[in-house]
């Protein structure tokens, strides 16, 4: 699941001083290379740097690429859950 927020260095990602999202886990683990994912718009450079295509999705939409379902905001939670691979 990819939610809103991007970590841009500084304190540990899990700290409360900066927003953090699963996009950092996906990009750092190099599991998105060659895939397309939806993330908060400010995260697009990080997604593309990791070799993935950043797909703009509406605030209530989810994006699915194979077995990977992502979203750009928490408002897409219901759609993301419905689209997530079982």
Any overview of this molecule?
With 86 residues, the protein is of the alpha+beta class. The chain has a single domain (22-83), classed as Rossmann fold (3-Layer(aba) Sandwich), CATH 3.40.50.880. The chain is built from three helices and four strands. The chain has a two-stranded parallel sheet. Strands 3-4 form a two-stranded antiparallel ribbon.
Biggest sheet descriptor: 2 strands, parallel
**CATH domain class name:** Alpha Beta
CATH topology: Rossmann fold
The number of helices is: 3
Summarize model confidence as the mean pLDDT. Answer: 75
Shape: globular
Number of strands: 4
Approximately how much helix is present in the residues?
10-25%
Strand content: 5-15%
The low-pLDDT segments are 1-5, 7-20
Class by helix and strand content?
A: alpha+beta
List keywords for this structure.
Rossmann fold; disordered N terminus; two-stranded parallel sheet; two-stranded antiparallel sheet; 4 strands; 86 residues; 23% helix; alpha+beta; 14% strand; 3 helices
Topology:
Layout: H1 22-28, E1 36-37, H2 44-49, E2 53-54, E3 62-65, E4 68-71, H3 77-83
Concise summary:
By secondary structure, the protein is α+β, with helices and mostly antiparallel strands.
């Amino acid at each position: 699941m990819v939610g809103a927020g991007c970590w841009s260095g500084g304190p540990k990602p899990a700290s409360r001083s900066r927003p953090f999202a699963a996009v950092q886990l996906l990009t750092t683990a190099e599991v998105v290379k060659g895939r397309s994912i939806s993330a908060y718009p400010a995260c697009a450079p990080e997604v593309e740097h990791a070799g993935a295509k950043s797909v703009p999705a509406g605030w209530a939409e989810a994006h699915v690429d194979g077995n990977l379902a992502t979203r750009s905001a928490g408002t897409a939670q219901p759609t993301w859950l419905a689209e997530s691979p079982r």
